[in-house]
Amino acid sequence: MRKLTLIFGIYCAFLSAQTIAESVILNPYQILNVQSGQLYKAQILVENGKIIQIGSNLTKKTADAKVINLPDLTLIPGLMDAHVHLMGNTELKGYAGIG
Known about the structure:
One of its GO terms (molecular function) is hydrolase activity, acting on carbon-nitrogen (but not peptide) bonds. By secondary structure, the chain is an alpha+beta fold. Helices cover 27% and strands 33% of the residues. The chain has a domain at 23-77: Urease, subunit C, domain 1 (Roll).
């Protein structure tokens, strides 16, 4: 039973490693530059979970990448963990309590 569990665990780790390693091109309707406030058309190349390049015609440069078309969406970067409560309990709990 332990061997079967070990083999299954290794198999799952191998599958997740393959998923993470792929290149993806996001093709939204537009992108918001939060510093300038400008909207522009571009594509985003993501490799191994990190943004590598933002530009046009990335599909031609990286033919092996998976393209995800987002025709009705505007991408807005930098809103990670944007959930906040301005009023209410003032005790430091959760992430803030960790330091």
